[in-house]
């Protein structure tokens, strides 16, 4: 109890002592008036409010800047995406445009009809045949008798005269050549339309090929595009001819492919025999610094040799001999004093192994080898086998078969059309290839003389389909159905088929010209035939409309 009273008393005394009234004014802090305190609080509040506004403004500016940056980034990103989408659509549009343009060029001037619904695959009628009046049997028979047979009667006599003179000329050529250094020339052979009896256009020109071989101890080693080594697509149908010594290893030795050291010696070949002077190879008509036979060198040598041979025997003949075409080195012309002339082609060739396939230096009057890769590339000709095939098939056909007549009529129409509209990529060799395919596909009885009209239509339809597809395959290359009696080399039968229309796939201008010429020939066919046909009653001359 006394302790509690003591604590209360101490608290009262402390409160009394600390009261402000017990101290003088100069020694204490006199509280300010209420108005002054309120005024200062208002000023403080105002300053705080202004500061808050300033801070809020700065924050708003920072947020606006951030939003602007983010918006700019979004715009840039969207522009990139839009550019990518635009580039994609641009590329896609260009592809679509190119496809449409290709389609338009292929199918302009009338759409082609697809093949289908026919039992006979050859019986293809495209729009090109719609509205075409096809001559009937009577008109075709009259035309053939008057125009074809009436102008081909002198071919046999001309062939005999040219062959006799060519044999004499080649015999003289052998006598003027150096047997130890010059090429050895063999007997000539007749090939082509004059010797297959279907040439109709004048002037008549005989095509003769002359095989030649190198002097001893050399030989030719031929390599074709289908012999195993890879050849570019534009070199299909070509080959190279290597001039080698007959005692060289045909399989080759590594000393030819590997650079031996100075202290190393090949036990099979001496250094002397493996290296030949370049002038020796050039004397053998090889391309410079190579062992490959040069077609240009061969033609130059052949022209010089023929000129020397003619100078030796010219006194025996009462006519002149000259080279008729600068771009065809083997084109010769006999000029009689009466003003008449006879043209023929004498072309050197190289035999492929032991077959009747030949490497030919150039094609006279033809565009088949117009784009030869180089002068060391030689085109292969199967003309001898083509002639033999026609002769072989002719033995199985009915008497007076119409196969040759079809080719003659078609060749005449094509030649006449080219004389009106200019030459095109389509050649007589293409027409002959069409006939060879049909001869193999059609049974023998289908070539009876009374079926001339139907077979001529088949050839035109087959050709139309080939032009549409841009595919006309070589008859022999890749054809495993070639008769065994021909003795045709198996390497070419097993080769990939060779498309004769392949050069026109990329050269669209030539292809378009070829198609236009074909269409014009169809439209003008009746007029061209009627021009050379004797008058036949109207009831027999009405054309047959084709669907």
TrEMBL record:
Alphabetical UniProt keywords: Cell membrane, Coiled coil, Glycoprotein, Membrane, Nucleus, Signal, Transmembrane, Transmembrane helix
Boundaries of each Mab-21-like HhH/H2TH-like domain copy? 404-477
Membrane topology is: Single-pass type I membrane protein
- List the signal peptide residues: 1-20
GO terms (molecular function) for this protein are:
protein kinase inhibitor activity
GO cellular component entries:
nuclear outer membrane; plasma membrane
Matching InterPro entries: ITPRIP-like, Mab-21_HhH/H2TH-like, MAB21L/cGLR
Domain of life, per lineage: Eukaryota
Subcellular location, record wording: Cell membrane; Nucleus outer membrane
Coiled-coil ranges from the UniProt annotation: 38-72
Function description: Enhances Ca(2+)-mediated inhibition of inositol 1,4,5-triphosphate receptor (ITPR) Ca(2+) release.
Q: Which protein family is named in the record?
A: Belongs to the ITPRIP family.
| Official protein name in the record | Inositol 1,4,5-trisphosphate receptor-interacting protein
What organism is this sequence from?
Answer: Sitta europaea (Eurasian nuthatch)
């Amino acid at each position: 109890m006394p302790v509690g009273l003591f604590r209360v008393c101490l608290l009262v005394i402390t409160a009394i002592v600390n009261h402000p009234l017990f101290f003088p004014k100069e020694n204490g802090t006199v509280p300010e008036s209420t108005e002054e305190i309120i005024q200062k609080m208002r000023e403080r509040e105002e300053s705080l409010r202004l500061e808050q506004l300033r801070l809020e403004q700065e924050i708003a500016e920072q947020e606006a800047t951030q939003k602007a940056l983010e918006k700019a980034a979004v715009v840039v990103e969207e522009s990139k995406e839009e550019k990518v989408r635009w580039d994609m659509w641009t590329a896609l549009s260009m592809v679509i445009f190119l496809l449409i343009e290709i389609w338009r060029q292929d199918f302009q001037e009338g759409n082609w009809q697809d093949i289908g619904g026919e039992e006979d695959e050859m019986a293809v009628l495209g729009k090109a045949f719609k509205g075409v009046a096809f001559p009937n049997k009577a008109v075709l028979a009259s035309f053939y008798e008057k125009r074809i047979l009436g102008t081909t009667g002198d071919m046999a006599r001309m062939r005999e005269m040219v062959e006799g003179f060519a044999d004499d000329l080649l015999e003289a050529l052998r006598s003027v050549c150096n047997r130890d250094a010059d090429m050895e020339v063999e007997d000539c052979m007749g090939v082509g339309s004059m010797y297959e009896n279907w040439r109709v256009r004048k002037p008549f020109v005989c095509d003769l090929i002359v095989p030649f071989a190198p002097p001893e101890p050399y030989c030719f080693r031929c390599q074709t595009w289908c012999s195993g080594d890879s050849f570019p697509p534009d070199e299909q149908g070509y080959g190279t001819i290597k001039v080698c010594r007959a005692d060289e290893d045909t399989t080759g030795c590594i000393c030819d492919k590997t650079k031996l050291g100075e202290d190393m010696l090949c036990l099979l070949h001496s250094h002397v025999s493996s290296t030949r002077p370049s002038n020796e190879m050039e004397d053998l008509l090889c391309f410079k610094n190579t062992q490959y036979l040069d077609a240009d060198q061969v033609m130059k040598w052949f022209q010089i040799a023929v000129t020397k041979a003619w100078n030796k025997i010219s006194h025996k003949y009462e006519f002149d001999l000259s080279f008729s075409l600068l771009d065809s080195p083997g084109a010769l012309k006999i000029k009689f004093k009466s003003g008449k002339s006879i043209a023929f082609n004498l072309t050197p060739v190289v035999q492929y192994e032991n077959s009747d396939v030949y490497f030919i230096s150039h094609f006279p009057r033809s565009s088949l080898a117009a784009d030869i890769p180089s002068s060391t590339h030689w085109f292969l000709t199967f003309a001898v086998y083509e002639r033999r095939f026609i002769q072989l098939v002719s033995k199985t056909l009915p008497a007076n078969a119409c196969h040759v007549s079809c080719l003659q009529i078609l060749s005449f129409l094509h030649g006449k059309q080219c004389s009106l509209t200019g030459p095109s990529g389509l050649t007589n060799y293409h027409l002959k290839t069409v006939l060879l395919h049909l001869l193999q596909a059609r049974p023998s009885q289908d070539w009876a003389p009374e079926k001339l009209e139907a077979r001529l239509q088949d050839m035109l339809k087959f050709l139309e389909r080939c032009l549409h597809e841009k595919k006309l395959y070589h008859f022999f290359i890749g054809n495993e159905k070639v008769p065994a009696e021909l003795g045709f080399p198996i390497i070419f039968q097993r080769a990939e088929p060779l498309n004769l229309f392949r050069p026109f796939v990329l050269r669209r201008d030539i292809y378009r010209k070829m198609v236009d010429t074909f269409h014009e020939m169809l439209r003008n066919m009746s007029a061209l035939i009627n021009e050379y046909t004797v008058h036949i009653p109207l009831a027999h001359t009405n054309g047959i409309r084709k669907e």
